[in-house]
Write a structure and sequence with these properties.
Layout: E1 12-18, H1 25-41, E2 50-55, H2 62-72, E3 76-81, H3 87-97, E4 102-105, H4 116-127, E5 131-136, H5 144-159, E6 168-175, H6 176-184, H7 192-199, E7 203-208, H8 222-236, H9 239-267, H10 275-308, E8 315-319, H11 322-325
Parallel strand pairs: 1-2, 1-4, 2-3, 5-7
Antiparallel strand pairs: 3-8, 4-6, 5-6
Bound molecules: uridine-5'-diphosphate and magnesium ion.
């Protein structure tokens, strides 16, 4: 990992994670190839630049589409993971296994405006940025519910001290050395949006409009989204644990005051009303305790997974990349 001594335009690798994307793939491919050719023609990137489709264990025709494309289009390469590992891991695999001087990750459904690719590349060339974040200018294509929860989530993360870029999904440019740095983070629980800002180097943001998925369905149902959100909190902040400690202190102090009041009452001849107050106190405390134990358990489970340090993915096949297929 060193300072870039390259001369001439960089080799760009566009990493596209795909999970059951047969409906969108041909269109995505032709749009991206057009954009790429324009960049090559304008001398912004060199002609070794290419698209790397990462098949994340799709169950439809995605991989055969990629394989066919790699035969007919010299600028298309494919990487097949051994099974479905999830969006974050698929992106990581593409970045770590791919070749190039700069990498741009973008979703297969092209919800992210691909004209921002050019701006990202220009930012890298002119300002020497190592990371360029694509940031949504608006969220008009999202439901009100998604906008509201996204907003709340960003607030929560920053309150917990996690640094992330507001309105940035995983559409970004990274230089080779930023990716080498990313590769040093060995965590199994991946949340790239939280990891990339930790790397440092010179960064920039580019605004773009996000549109609807043009075909197929979202592969990110609410359940997966919540789990990614939870990942973001627990992988980057131990503050929730601090919060339960503080809650414990506060509750202990209240309990102490309550005890004093009860003793005082009985010494002065009065008694505190019994059943209801007891049940309420026991129920509330029981709930809080279970919550606290559950939270500790969440972190424990995470430690369990990280300590095992299982491999994050296996590459099944690579197509379209001569330098790699010759070695086999
Ligand atoms: N994806 C993936 N593995 C998965 C789920 C999704 O590689 O297990 C890919 C998917 O093909 C797409 C990107 O991740 O290119 C984002 O998924 P999607 O568009 O369904 O999510 P949304 O935009 O609705 O959040
Ligand atoms: Mg999408």
């Amino acid at each position: 990992m060193g300072i870039d001594k390259r001369s001439g335009p960089p080799e760009l690798c566009i990493v596209v994670p795909c999970y059951n994307e047969e409906e969108v793939l041909p269109e995505a491919q032709s749009r991206l190839l057009n954009e790429l050719s324009a960049l090559v023609a304008d001398g912004l990137v060199n002609n070794a630049s290419h698209i790397l489709f990462v098949d994340d264990g799709s169950k439809d025709q995605t991989w055969s589409l990629i394989e066919n494309a790699s035969r007919t289009e010299p600028q298309v390469r494919g990487l097949k993971l051994s099974r479905n590992r999830g969006h974050q891991t698929a992106v990581l695999a593409g970045l770590l296994e791919g070749q190039g001087d700069i990498f741009i990750s973008i979703d297969a459904d092209l919800q992210d405006d691909i004209t921002a690719i050019r701006q990202m590349v220009i930012s890298h060339i002119e300002d020497g940025t190592d990371v360029v974040y694509g940031v949504r200018a608006g969220r008009s294509s999202d439901t009100a519910f998604k906008r509201f929860t996204a907003e709340g989530y960003y607030r929560l993360l920053s309150a917990l001290g996690v640094e992330i870029v507001f309105n940035h999904a995983d559409y970004r440019l990274m230089s080779q050395r930023a990716i080498s740095a990313l590769g040093e983070y060995r965590e199994v629980h991946l949340f790239l949006r939280g990891l990339v800002p930790l790397i440092g180097f010179k960064t920039a943001t580019i605004e773009y409009d996000r549109s609807e998925r043009f075909a197929g369905e979202s592969k990110y149902p609410l359940r997966k989204m919540l789990s990614l959100a939870w990942e973001g909190v627990t992988s980057f902040s131990a503050k929730p644990l601090r919060i339960i400690s503080i809650a414990g202190i506060v509750i202990s102090m209240l309990a102490f005051l309550g005890a004093l009041a009860a003793i005082w009452a009985s010494l002065t001849g009065g008694t505190v009303e019994g059943w209801a107050s007891l049940v309420v106190a026991v129920a509330i405390l029981g709930g809080i305790q279970l919550l606290a134990i559950g939270l500790i358990g969440e972190y424990l489970g995470k430690i369990y997974n990280e300590v095992k340090a299982r491999p994050r993915y296996f590459v099944d096949k690579i197509v379209g990349d001569e330098s790699q297929t010759l070695d086999d």
